[in-house]
Write a structure and sequence with these properties.
The protein has eight helices and eight strands. Strands 2-3-1-4-8 form a five-stranded parallel beta sheet, sandwiched between helices. A three-stranded antiparallel beta sheet has the order 6-5-7. The termini are far apart. It has a domain of 111 residues: 3-Layer(aba) Sandwich (Rossmann fold). It is an alpha/beta fold. The longest helix has 24 residues.
C-alpha cells in the first residue's frame, strides 16, 4: 500500500512571510511540530544540522571547515554556522518564510538573525517555546525505542509495541539510541537549560515568545502552534 504524500494547505501557502522559531529542550517534540507547520505553509523546515551535513556532502569551503570539527565532536563556531544560515535563506524557497528548529541558540545569534530577516523583507519572527517538566522529558527520551529496519519510533512507557522489543509494522528489532540513555541525556538537558534561558528571556522582552505546553498530545500541541502563528498573521 502506497503512503499518501503530505501536501501544503492551499489556504496557507504564501501567507507566512516570516520566520517561525522553535525553542525547546531535546525530546520536547519541536522537530515534529516544525516539520508539520512547514508542510502546512509550504515553506522550508530549516535546521543547522541539515545545513552542516549538506555543505559537507557538497564539499564546499564551509563544509570543509566544519567537517574536521564535527569529526572531533567539537562545536562548529558561529563564523561558519551564520554563513551557512545566510546562504540557505537566500534560496528562492525561503521567499515566503521558513521554520527554524534549533536555531538561534544564543542571544547574539538571535540579534544577528533579526537583522538578516529585516534585510530580506520578512516580518518579525514568531518564537514558539516548548515548555515541559524535566522529569517527564527524561521519561519521554529514555523510553524511546527505534526500529532498526523501518525507523518507526515507540516509547516503552507511553506508546509501547504490541510485543516488547519488536516493531508492529515490520517485525524489526527495537533499539535504544546511545544518546537516549539517561547518563547522556541528563547533562544535555542541564546544558540546554543554562544556554537557552537568556535566549527565551530575550525574545520574551521583545514580546515575540509564546509558551506551549509540550506535555500535551502531538495533536493538541499542533493546534496550539497553529493558533499562535495564525494570530501573528
Amino acid at each position: 500500500m502506497e503512503k499518501s504524500v503530505a501536501v501544503p494547505d492551499s489556504r496557507l501557502v504564501g501567507r507566512l512571510q516570516r520566520a517561525v522559531i522553535f525553542l525547546g529542550p531535546p525530546g520536547a517534540g519541536k522537530g515534529t511540530q516544525a516539520q508539520e507547520l512547514a508542510r502546512k505553509y509550504g515553506v522550508p523546515h530549516l535546521s543547522t544540522g541539515d545545513m552542516l551535513r549538506e555543505n559537507i556532502a557538497l564539499g564546499n569551503a564551509l563544509g570543509e571547515q566544519a567537517k574536521p570539527l564535527m569529526a572531533r565532536g567539537e562545536l562548529v563556531p558561529d563564523s561558519i554556522i551564520l554563513k551557512m544560515v545566510a546562504k540557505r535563506i537566500e534560496r528562492p524557497d525561503c521567499s515566503f518564510g521558513f521554520v527554524f528548529d534549533g536555531f538561534p541558540r544564543t542571544v547574539a545569534q538571535a540579534q544577528w538573525l533579526g537583522e538578516l530577516l529585516r534585510q530580506h523583507g520578512l516580518k518579525q519572527p514568531v518564537v514558539v517555546h516548548f515548555v515541559i517538566d524535566p522529569a517527564l522529558l527524561m521519561r519521554r527520551i529514555t523510553g524511546r525505542r527505534m526500529c532498526k529496519t523501518g525507523g518507526d519510533i515507540y516509547n516503552i512507557y507511553d506508546r509501547p509495541p504490541k510485543v516488547p522489543g519488536i516493531c508492529d509494522t515490520d517485525g524489526g528489532e527495537l533499539v535504544q539510541r546511545p544518546d537516549d540513555r539517561e547518563e547522556i541525556v541528563a547533562p544535555r538537558l542541564e546544558a540546554y537549560a543554562k544556554m537557552t534561558a537568556p535566549l527565551a528571556a530575550y525574545y520574551r522582552r521583545l514580546g515575540r515568545l509564546e509558551d506551549v505546553d509540550a506535555a500535551q498530545s502531538v495533536e493538541q500541541v499542533s493546534k496550539r502552534v497553529l493558533e499562535i502563528v495564525s494570530k501573528a498573521q
